[in-house]
């Protein structure tokens, strides 16, 4: 109901789509409408590498205890 904007369940059921292919097509059309059809490429970063990057870029404020 959030995706389609229906406020009541009775209206939602009246227009409910049950086909998976119809749902997929509808989401693609909505993405095109909102300019988000091209998904950003996903990059997997190992946890250890992410932690190193996070600690390397974040400097403690002067006078802030570390630990």
Overall description:
This protein has 3 helices and no strands. By secondary structure, the protein is mostly helical. The radius of gyration is 22 Å and the shape is elongated. The chain starts with 8 loop residues before the first helix and ends in a 10-residue tail after the last helix.
Describe the protein's topology.
Elements: H1 9-15, H2 20-33, H3 47-57
Per DSSP, what share of the residues sits in E-state strands of 2 or more residues?
A: under 5%
N-to-C order of helices and strands: HHH
Q: Give the low-pLDDT segments.
A: none
Mean pLDDT: 75
Distance between the termini: 47 Å
Find the structural class using helix and strand composition: mainly alpha
> What is the overall number of helices?
3
Residues in helices, as a percent range: 40-55%
Strand elements, count: 0
| Radius of gyration, in angstroms, nearest whole number | 22 Å
Gross geometry: elongated
| Sheet with the most strands, sense and barrel status | none
Question: Could you provide a short overview of the structure?
Answer:
It contains 3 helices and no strands.
Relevant terms:
elongated, 67 residues, mainly alpha, 48% helix, 3 helices, 0% strand
